[in-house]
Amino acid sequence: MPGLILFGLLIMLPILLTIVYSFFKISFLTNQFDYVGFKNFLKLLHKKDFYNSLQIVLTLTIIAVIFSNLIGIIFAKLFNKNNKIFIVLRVLIFTPFILSPIVVGYTFSSILTDKGILNQFLNFFSITHDISWLGDSKYALISISIALCWQLVAFCTVIYLACLKNIPSELEDAVNIDGANNIQKFRYLDWPLLAPALTINTVVILISSFKLYDRVLALTGGGPGRSTETISMLIIRTAFNENRVGFASSMSLILLILSGITTFVALIYLGKREVTI
Amino acid sequence: MFLINKLNKIKYLISILVFISIFPFATNAKDQIELDFMVFETPNLPAEFWDDAIARTVAEFPEYKINKIVPPNVGTMGDYLKQLQATDQFPDVMMSNFAVAEFIEAGLLLPYEDSDLVRFVDPVGLGLTNGKQYALPQLTVVESLMFYNKDMFSKAGISGEPETWEQLEDAAAKLKSNNLTPFIVGGAAGDSWAAAWPLMDLVALNVTGKDKDFLKNLKNGSGDFSNPLMEDSINAYSDLVSKGWTNSTALSLNYSELQQTFLNGDGAMYPMGGFFAGAVPLDHPFEIGVFAIPALDGNSRLVTYTSGGPAVSANTEYPEEARKFAVEFATNVATNADDLFRDAHIPNNKNFDLERDMKGYDIHPLIFEIIEILQTPNYQHVPFFTFEVGDDALVSGMQAEVFANSQEILSGKSTSEIIENLNNKLAELQ
After folding, report:
1. Considering the domain A58-273, what is its CATH architecture?
2. b/e per residue, B228-261, with b = 16+ CB within 10 A?
């Protein structure tokens, strides 16, 4: 019972309030609270900024799902050894994930600013002229995805490593006796058995990317202009800068539905790939 | 019996705890006036400045206890206040370094009495709302200033300070042909307000300072940003970018890096408010000059901001005391002097005497030059765009859009796209 009360207060109540608020015109400044029906949702259909933010979030999500999983698998395969060094490395690789996203944001901003470590490194080897990694809208989204993937790779690696460790040695022995090379071993043994890890990682990445806020705030603040403004940032701006809490709630609700559907589809689709030993 | 004894003991314990917890409040309610005071910190006005200023004000009023609140970023002070209001933590007193108009409209600020304003040289400042002042006109900042590197000007063969927009463009062309970056502009992430500075000046000088009905029309829905004066102002800013006259680093510099870029000698001109003068060391390696940014039509206008003092919450528990604190804070001569020295904020205090009160301060000559510009008789003083109050205030929520679109100008977006963005947001907010 106490668990149910806590769940109701901390999870269900805010969701229900968001649903209720999305049908009202609300301003915390003037304490305005007028029922407007579906007007907020209709307005959302014509809001260019919302589509822009949706596109940004989807781009970041696709990049994060592909690269975090890919690099995570590579790292997991490389670190899946019983040597002491690799045991230490396995602990270290998880470190980025335990850092606060805002800390990661500021750390990357010191690396990616015009006079930052990356440009100094590139200049040292005369590789390129100064690139404005955060100030040029062509590169800003890429820079954010790098910071995002850096943190998510840590999580993916650990999950894949745990999964690799669970592959029975008998199966590996059988594959070795059959004379499979490394690619064949990965294709026919590791990849099918890593399916549960892929599901977990993909779902976690989807959820993290859809609600992305703090790293972007620290890196670009949504700029230049609105070129990296995620939906969460747009929601905060609409609610607190423009005093349109009801409209912002309708965006939150759409975001919740979108991330819910995407996660559900991913779970069903990826779940089908999972095999049991 | 044992249970009764235990309950009695608990009862006594609770009584003692209740007495202890109530006692300090009982005495505090009588003796201590606790006020939450929001200030802002910048490189020129660090924590130490505010702590000293608060200490000076409360020195003669020991009954005051001031809790200093600092927003995460000076440019987002208004947003932070809205978050505090939404969570019932609106401060009692706040420095009005944000667009106050929407807070006045929402009834969140307390109007000052006429008696509170007698100490100010100009009691009106940015303007009145329904005949009332809501933010003390503590200081004047000259906003439309162009600081310039005198060495670079002489290297490019520029003899005098530009007095018209055409002369400014000629100077920029000469600098560029001498492989010098003519303008240092920018403002990244949370400092988008800095990127908007030239646009806010250009619009104030050429649109709102010229067409008195422009903002009123925006407010009542009879006008929008598709206006030839507005187009000219945006074009003037975007031309500086498209001609390659601005620094390529514009959108990756935060405010302090932007300031430092000019101080490092990476560019010849720096459009910024007078407060920049407070950041120039007396022994700076090159000489810096200053002139007023010319209006596009050749008329003499100067963008000024006379306000910036404390505003008081309409819901404060201590309205009289909060107003008294605000007035004392804004007119403390020692604080005014420190503020002028550090941030070139020109005091609007009748009791302040430049010669007498600045003794002991090594003031940068630039500050005197700015005061001279402010006192030049033929200038029409116009309010700073996006910071207006009263009937002439910009529609609430538009300021952030102006800031973001200024970054878009620096990214190379066209004037028509900028105007379309501003019109879309205006339609949404109306």
Report:
1. Orthogonal Bundle (1.10)
2. ebbbbbbbbbbebbeeebbbbbbbbbbbebbbeb
